[in-house]
Amino acid sequence: MATNPAVRAARCDRVRYEPGRKAVTPAGQRTARQVSKARTRVLTDAVDALPPADRDRLADLISPMLAAMVRGPGATRWLCRLCHIQACGRSEGRCPAANEAAARYG
């Protein structure tokens, strides 16, 4: 796998190869958690500035936007890597991206 030497040096993208799948290394997992925490802080501060009714309205507005960003099977951009999988309600059937993908592609 060819990668940028700086990225390789940071060990953020190294993977362990297992039959049929790739796994993120512990260093990559730590980096992903740090990025996710920083993103969450920024977004939480921004959304907290809204009154509760506007927060609900924002969720209603963003859901169709996320659904429109769904790519087909095999796409190189994966929307959910930007998401907190448990927070979106995916397992309860509330994730707009997962629901749209299921409707389009089964």
Provide an overview of this structure.
- The model is unreliable at 1-16 (pLDDT under 50).
- The chain has a two-stranded antiparallel ribbon.
- The chain has two domains: 1-49, no CATH class; 50-106, no CATH class.
- The longest helix is centred in the middle third of the chain and has 23 residues, at 26-48.
- A hairpin with a 2-residue loop joins β1 and β2.
- It is built from four helices and two strands.
- It is 53% helix and 8% strand.
- α3 runs parallel beside α4.
- The protein is flat and about 50 Å long.
- It is mostly helical and 106 residues long.
The helix-strand sequence is: HEEHHH
Low-confidence stretches: 1-16
Spatial strand order of the main sheet: 1-2
Describe the oligomeric state of these chains in a short phrase. Answer: single chain
Question: What is the residue-averaged pLDDT?
Answer: 75
Overall spatial form: flat
Cα distance, first to last residue? 31 Å
Radius of gyration: 17 Å
Tally of individual helices? 4
